[in-house]
Amino acid sequence: MKGKVALVTGSSRGAGKGIALELARRGAFVYITGRTTDISATEHIKGSIDSVLREIKESGGSGAVIRCDHTKDQETEVVIRQIAEEQGRLDILVNNVWGGNDLAIEQKPFWELPTAHWDNMFNAGVKAQMITNYYAIPFMRKAKTGGLIIHTTFWDHYKYLGNFYYDLSKNALLRMAFGLSKELKEDGIAVISLSPGWMRTEAVLEAMNTDEEHWQEVGELKMSESTTYIGRAVAALAADPEVMSMSGEPQQVGKLAEKYGFTDIDGRIIPSFIM
């Protein structure tokens, strides 16, 4: 991916971090956005955009950080403008920013759930990804070099996800990718929604009172996957010259591992998460 420029939103931790690190390992110049910097990080919050950039550079990769609150449209616009001025191109856009887990995602009927889920999942999730597309797509189209847009979401063959707001927002991202795939077909820009499995994010490990070195001691994490796994899926899609044939179709990381032959960091091909 030498010469390719990528933007991974919401990449201070979790899936975003795994994706940013893997794209950088493959040679892409990666822009990392998020709200948490070294200065704003606390002991409770593990990871920042600055710490991810350090990891990229320590592994021989290259990139840059741009602090951005993606719920503020003008800050997102500044991100795209900066990339345009510094690089003149954007080949890979990974819409990963997500603010939907600020409240517990409870399995309760819709009428018993707090309506604050709407602000978290739609304003800080669906809209944040939409606005990034709004500013990035004209720039990507102008370059006339094709490209790839990824929306990280959750999908299991359209099964109901158990929480009304979670189901609605995650399926909204599927439709966003599907609609854009139709509108960007002639530009040669593939748009794909990508669903990971049971990821060992920092939050999951903390909730299980473990860490990446000891997760195998926790039975509930037996079929979990590292955040590198989704990173390898994105890298495989970005390197596939036939990726346009998959545009608009939801993809699962486990299925892509079978298709492209990559593994997780422990050598396993972990099957797709099934509800």
TrEMBL record:
Q: Where are the transmembrane segments?
A: none
The domain of life is: Bacteria
- What is the protein's name according to its record? Oxidoreductase
Q: Native species of this protein?
A: Paenibacillus pseudetheri
